[in-house]
Write a structure and sequence with these properties.
This protein is mainly α and 145 residues long. Helix content is 54%, strand content 0%.
């Protein structure tokens, strides 16, 4: 196991806070590293996550799609799903599909606004194609392939 902050080997794991101590995902090599821990910067865990069962994978992919469509930040969702154990290749494919779907829905919404059909209420896709592209770049940082 290596330190999530500095990359040094971890002999006696130190955790940055009680929550991380309970989860045992983000281990640090010393108190100094634990104090420098920032979850936005040091989001890659010390060890590779365990592979998931097929049913659990399907459930997490469904949740991921819903969260991105409902406007959650795609980078946060992707990080959480990688740490949960979803395979990076499938995440990348799903993000590509979500990005294309988001663009399509936005162009349709623009066409409806153009024709003045304000009375039609549709479920709005709140995902941002630029944020989805950023989330795809987050996958490139994942070292466990």
């Amino acid at each position: 196991m290596k330190c999530v902050v500095c990359g040094a080997p971890v002999e006696g794991a130190v955790y940055p806070n009680p929550y991380e101590r309970a989860r045992r995902i983000y281990a640090c090599c010393s108190d100094a590293c634990a104090q420098r821990f920032d979850p936005d910067t040091h989001w890659i865990p010390a060890e590779a996550p365990r592979p998931l069962a097929e049913a659990e994978e399907a459930r997490l992919f469904r949740i991921m799609r819903e969260r991105i469509t409902n406007g959650d930040r795609p980078t946060v969702v992707v990080r959480e799903m990688l740490v949960a154990g979803l395979p990076p290749k499938r995440l990348r494919l799903l993000l590509g599909d979500q990005g294309a779907l988001s663009q399509h829905r936005r162009s349709q919404a623009a066409a409806f606004r153009l024709f003045g059909l304000f009375s039609i209420r549709r479920k709005r896709d709140k995902s941002d194609p630029k944020a989805i592209a950023q989330a795809t770049r987050e996958i490139d940082q994942w070292p466990f392939v």
